[in-house]
Amino acid sequence: MSNLPAEISKRLFSIYVFSKVKHIVDFRHVWGVISILFEEIIKDFKNEEKIKIYNFGTLRMKRTKPRPYHHVRYGVFMMSEGKNILEFLLSQKIRNKICSQLDIKKTFGKDKK
């Protein structure tokens, strides 16, 4: 269980934390803390607030503007509803580290096969 999957549930995350604290804390307490954490994150996303994870980055929910599109079936232009998107911004430290190790010519060169 050292590698967590990309999608994680409260149950799986609680089991992971419970194993990391070496079963010293009761599982119900771990479950309660994780539940409160998830509820607070959801509440912040609904209020369009930023969630900052220090030395890692910032998460925020952003609402896009409604846009016109052509509906093929009816042959008319319609307006789409604005969508909620989750935006992640890397911290400056990590961004600089990635950019310093990126080789543009090697990545996007013409002789790349």
Protein topology:
Elements: H1 10-20, H2 27-46, E1 50-53, E2 57-63, E3 68-71, E4 76-79, E5 84-90, H3 92-101, H4 104-108
Antiparallel strand pairs: 1-2, 2-5, 3-4
Helix pairs in contact: 1-2
**DSSP E strands, number:** 5
The proportion of residues in beta strands is: 15-25%
Structural class: alpha+beta
Q: What is the CATH architecture term of the largest domain?
A: Irregular
The name CATH uses for the topology of the largest domain is: HU Protein, Chain A
Helix content: 40-55%
Specify the number of helices: 4
For the biggest β-sheet, the strand order reads 1-2-5
Q: What is the class of the largest domain in the CATH system? A: Few Secondary Structures
Explain this structure.
By secondary structure, the protein is of the alpha+beta class. The chain has two domains: 1-47, no CATH class; 49-104, IHF-like DNA-binding proteins (HU Protein, Chain A). The chain has four helices and five strands; from the N terminus they run ααβββββαα. It has helices spanning 10-20, 27-46, 92-101, 104-108; strands at 50-53, 57-63, 68-71, 76-79, 84-90. The strands form two sheets. A three-stranded antiparallel beta sheet has the order 1-2-5. A two-stranded antiparallel ribbon has the order 3-4. Helix 1 crosses helix 2. The longest helix has 20 residues, at 27-46. The chain is extended, with a radius of gyration of 21 Å.
